[in-house]
Write a structure and sequence with these properties.
Layout (H helix, E strand, L loop, with lengths): L1 H16 L10 H12 L3 E5 L2 E4 H17 L7 E5 L5 H11 L3 E4 L6 H11 L3 E4 L4 H7 L8 E4 L11 H5 L9 H4 L8 E6 L9 E5 H14 L7 E4 L6 H12 L4 E4 L8 H7 L4 E5 H8 L14 E5 L3 H9 L6 E6 L6 E3 L9 E2 L10 E4 L1 E2 L4 E2 L15 E7 L15 H6 L1 E3 L7 E11 L4 E7 L3 E4 L2 E4 H8 L5 E9 L8 E8 L6 H11 L8 E4 L14 H6 L10 E4 L5 E3 L2 H8 L6
Parallel strand pairs: 1-10, 3-4, 3-5, 4-7, 5-6, 9-10, 9-11, 11-12, 12-13, 26-27
Antiparallel strand pairs: 1-2, 7-8, 13-14, 15-22, 16-19, 17-18, 19-21, 20-21, 21-22, 23-24, 25-26, 27-28, 28-29
Helix pairs in contact: 1-9, 2-3, 2-4, 3-4, 5-6, 9-10, 12-13
Length: 592
């Protein structure tokens, strides 16, 4: 039955994405217009007590498109969108796409230098904000590389003709005609810029051509098997692909209703799911971890969910989602926003991100190759080519670049230099080119892929490779550990990096001695965290990804860290780490 479910999902999805081509004049906005014509009177989006039909959404989008034409914004130019989730969000980029204008989706949580950076690299001279984000923009306006024209929607500070709501009232709601507004535009052209999370530095702007957007949207419309009777709950930010394209496509290409939320709330989540009569919800793995760490509530088993889908769900949380919340089906997927590798776990094998069975290997572009985590370089054989991993071996995930096949094309980033750094050449044959995802995985003999870690999140200690993700999964099993963020820190006088874990714990249930016993019983000596940092909460990005760069920079210096610190002493016990002990470790007087 697992094989049947896999094949049904695969065939359904491949059938839906067939026809997507870089040279096609049929764009992502054409897909949405076709859905509008089919489901015009049905509810498309609900948000904070308000609803719009498919026809209403299309009219909103048409006004944005006609506004851009009227302002003289040309095809191929970019408008920046800097707003939290709200009703108008999808209509903005949908409408701009109708007239060939790209939209840069700026993370609404950014401020200061990071915000200025993202606005600068967008190349936009027009910026759409709301009352929440307008002050953040005003704070960086003078530090931008170019002058930007600000437009405000949904209330808030208005300055003359910058009131976009008022401006749009005088703009036509009729569709810009394909023949004039999109003549000559092909699906290889950029529709969106979606920024990386910036977990290890400044965000980069990934180019999302229409082909890529269509693959996301059509792929999840098929993968979820959504239809007009579905209500898809989305509390993920629309500025990233999982919420902004995967969820949007699953709902709005199928006649379903997108139940849009401003943000995620762990405490009210299940009550909201029940009240909204949701049948689907889209997740990020850490969102689900927050849910399993919440106290039980009656609503968590009163829902009407038939499927949840998303990425980053660890095995321990996966099993709890199935057992505690009685989730019928989980569709985990893998995909890099800027890349060309996509995997979907159609049959729900716990812990896997997808599957490529042996009889379909030639039909997929994904491979695993041997990779040295210490040098962060691929391993090459005597012939100069890379070495493919055997089943069970951990390797770098790569995707062959095939520019004529929309599924395997590589659009990269707005920065060409950054794009080129992600391409490997002469990999399995002379002259070939592959996208390097930066993700380490392993594949079993049945063809299932399992995510292991990000390159850079794996470090070397005592001559062994340590996966932060795998260690964190073990630590999360300990009674009283709510979250675990593992990273490597430099210790003077040693090679490599020692393991350190930032933990969020339930003080009433967490026992340090029991934690130590679990660590010693489940992890080899080289993988056991040498240092602990107890935090009130984990710092994450807008999509709940853990930020590690700041933690690693803080290290284990009690002079730089206000949180409680512990050191695994030579006897194996975790002891408080104070200034005196830190000095002894730094001087090499304590064995590590």
């Amino acid at each position: 039955m697992r094989e049947v479910r896999f094949l049904r999902g695969l065939i359904r999805t491949l059938g839906r994405v067939r026809g997507i081509a870089p040279d096609s004049p049929w764009l992502a906005c054409d897909d949405l217009e076709a859905a509008v014509d089919k489901f015009r009177g049905r509810t498309a989006i609900t948000f904070e007590g308000k609803s719009v039909t498919y026809g209403d959404l299309d009219a909103m989008a048409n006004r944005y498109g006609n506004w851009a034409k009227g302002r003289g914004i040309k095809r191929g130019e970019t408008v920046a969108l800097f707003m939290p989730n709200r009703m108008e969000y999808i209509a903005v980029w949908y409408g701009l796409a109708k007239v060939g204008v790209a939209t840069a989706l700026i993370n609404c949580n950014l401020s200061g230098q990071a915000l200025a950076h993202c606005l600068n690299i967008s190349g936009a001279v027009h910026l759409i904000v709301d009352s929440e984000t307008a002050p953040l923009f005003e704070a960086v306006r003078t530090s931008l590389a170019r002058s930007m024209m600000e437009w405000v929607v949904g209330g808030g500070p208005k300055r003359g003709d910058r009131d976009l709501d008022r401006t749009l009232k005088g703009v036509s709601a009729l569709r810009p005609t394909r023949e004039t507004a999109r003549a000559g535009i092909t699906a290889r052209e950029v529709m969106l810029y979606i920024y990386t999370s910036g977990t290890t530095g400044m965000p980069k702007a990934a180019r999302i051509p229409h082909t890529r957007a269509q693959l996301y949207m059509r792929g999840f419309a098929a993968g979820t098997d959504a239809g007009p009777n579905d209500r898809l709950y989305c509390c993920l930010p629309l500025y990233h692909a999982t919420g902004g394209l995967c969820a949007v496509g699953a709902a709005l290409l199928t006649g379903a209703t997108l139940v849009l939320k401003r943000k995620f709330s762990a405490s009210s989540f299940w009550d909201d799911i029940v009240a909204e009569e949701a049948t689907l919800f889209v997740y990020i793995g850490e969102l689900c971890r927050y849910l399993v760490n919440q106290p039980e509530v009656p609503a968590e088993r009163m829902h009407s969910l038939r499927l949840i889908f998303g990425n980053g769900l660890s095995l321990d949380v996966w099993n709890k989602m199935l057992s505690r919340f009685r989730i019928p089906n989980i569709l985990e997927f893998y995909g890099a926003t800027e890349g060309n590798v996509s995997l979907l776990n159609f049959d729900g094998k716990p812990g896997a991100v997808g599957r490529v069975p042996s009889y379909l290997r030639k039909s997929f572009n994904v491979k695993l190759i041997r990779f040295d985590v210490e040098t962060e370089l691929v391993e090459r054989g005597a012939n100069g080519l890379c070495i493919e991993c055997r089943p069970g071996e951990i390797g770098l995930t790569i995707g062959e670049i095939k520019s004529l096949d929309a599924r395997y094309a590589y659009a990269g980033y707005a920065d060409k230099t950054a794009s080129d750094r992600k391409v490997l050449r002469d990999v399995l044959a002379r002259g070939d080119a592959w996208f390097a995802t930066g993700d380490l995985m392993r594949q079993d003999r049945e063809g299932y892929f399992y995510f292991v870690d990000r390159v850079g999140d794996t470090f070397r200690w005592k001559g062994e490779n340590v996966s932060t993700g795998e260690v964190a999964a073990h630590l999360a099993e300990v009674h009283g550990v709510l979250e675990a963020n593992v990273y490597g820190v430099a210790v003077p006088g040693t090679e490599g990096r020692a393991g350190m874990a930032a933990l969020v714990t339930d003080h009433d249930r967490f026992d340090l001695a029991a934690f130590r016993s679990h660590v010693d019983a489940t992890l080899p000596p080289y993988a056991r965290p040498l240092f602990l940092r107890l935090q009130p909460q984990i710092v994450t990005t807008g999509t709940f990804k853990y930020r590690k760069i700041d933690l690693a920079a803080d290290g284990f210096d009690p002079g730089a860290v206000a949180d409680p610190l512990y050191f695994k002493d030579p006897e194996g016990a975790y002891v408080p780490l104070d200034a005196a002990l830190f000095a002894r470790i730094k001087a090499g007087e304590v064995r590590v």
